[in-house]
Every structure is written in C-alpha cells, then in structure tokens.
Amino acid sequence: MDLHHTQADFRTTQWTHIRALAEGSDHDRNKMLALLIARYWPPVYAHLRAHGRRPDDAAELTQAFFTDVVLGRQLFDKADARRGKLRSLLLSSLQRFAIDQHRRSIARGAAVTIPLDDLRREEQRFGDPADSRSDGAFDRRWAMLLLEEALRRCEDHFRSLGRDGHWQAFEARVLHPQVHQLRPPPLTDVAARYHFDSPAAAASAVHLVKQRAVTILRQVIAETLDDGEDVHTELAELQEHLAL
C-alpha cells in the first residue's frame, strides 16, 4: 500500500472510516486504510525521530509499524471510541512495538511504503533533532496536521470567492511572521501590496480570514472526534501542543 501524500481527507470523521472497515467491500476497506494511514504516519515518524531515531531508522520503523501492527494485527479494527482517542491507541501500540522490535514480523500480502519525497519533506519539517522535544512529538505533529488542513481549506475558500488578496494579506501579516518568527509588516504595506483601499480595509480582511480559519479548524477537529466528544476541549489541547 503506497502513501503518495500526507494530506489525507479529513472531511469524513475518522470513526466513520473505522466503522467502514468492518462494513465495506475489500475495495472500500483498502481505501479507508489508506486514508487512515496517510493521516497518521507523520505523527508516528515525528515521535520516533524525536526519541533519537535516525531518519532511515525512523522511516523503516514507521513502515514496519504500519505493516506489522496496523495492517498485520488489524489495529484499526480494534479501535473503540468508548475506550479513548484513536491516536492514543496508536501511540501506546507504537511505544510497545518500538521497545519490542525483535519480535516484529512482516505482515504477508500487504506492506506500507512511504515515498521518499514524502519522507524528505517530513524530515525537512522536523529540523534539528537537538532542538526537538521528544515528549509529545506525536501529538504536536498530529495537531500540526489538523492546522495545516484547516489552513488549506481556508485558502481554498477565499480563492474560490475571488478574494485572493484576503488570503495573501493574512499570509503576509499572520502566517509568514509566525512561521519565521518575524515582525508583522505594517498594515500600510499590506494594503498597498494587495490593493486594499486603506490599512483599515486590510486589517478587516485579515480579521475575516482569522475568523474563518478558526471556524474551519473547529470543523476539522470535529471530523476526528466521535459523537459526544468535545470540540472545545480538543481545540484547547491542540493549542497547547502547538504553543498557540
């Protein structure tokens, strides 16, 4: 099973995917497994790298974990929303698997292969291991995936409305400075560059995108939860993981 991208479809809840594993055809089951694996391998890789694994070792162990445990032992089939979050099940299983590597056996007939380009992008994102915190690396990467998905949808929303300038102003004023730890450019510069009538109009556009981004982020979070789980609580955890 090849994973050609990490932008898994978050529009259906992960628990819907889990339930579909038991109810769908073989084709549907394979599709659901691919979506779930694409969603979760980056946090698994981040956890292993943050705990001292070299890139090649982390990549090999990530692929072995999904091949042996997730596919071979049908880990997703054992998931139960009443017993806790899916990512908690994955993390605890991964920790046991990493400790007990010598017992792993490759699942017959199915294997997970993560493309080298995806691994290179993930490694670039990871940065210097000396600067990385090992505790919580899995949850931080998961939180970042949710945020990235929300921002992707937000950008699509404004561009589809022909409001490219709104998104570009938000990107210049908020995203770029936060990512690169820079001082935000003056609103006068943003207004002139993206053709707003005034700095106040540019500020209003940035605020509008912020509001939309938060709304979409809540939607993305909700898609990872089962009925009864609280979006507000999950959002607070996400903000904590990302230090927002």
Task: Please explain how this structure is put together.
By secondary structure, this protein is mainly alpha-helical. The chain has two domains: 1-130, no CATH class; 136-244, no CATH class. The protein has ten helices and no strands. The chain has helices at residues 14-23, 26-50, 55-72, 86-99, 116-126, 137-160, 164-180, 187-193, 199-222, 231-242. Helix 2 (26-50) packs across helix 6 (137-160) and helix 6 (137-160) crosses helix 9 (199-222). The chain is globular. The two termini are 35 Å apart.
Number of strands: 0
Proportion of beta-strand residues:
under 5%
Helix content: 55-70%
Order of helices and strands: HHHHHHHHHH
Distance between the termini: 35 Å
Shape: globular
User: Low-confidence parts lasting 5 or more residues at pLDDT below 50?
Assistant: 1-6, 104-108
C-alpha Rg (nearest Å): 20 Å
Number of domains: 2
Count of helix runs: 10
Mean residue pLDDT: 82
* Class inferred from helices and paired strands: mainly alpha
Largest sheet: none
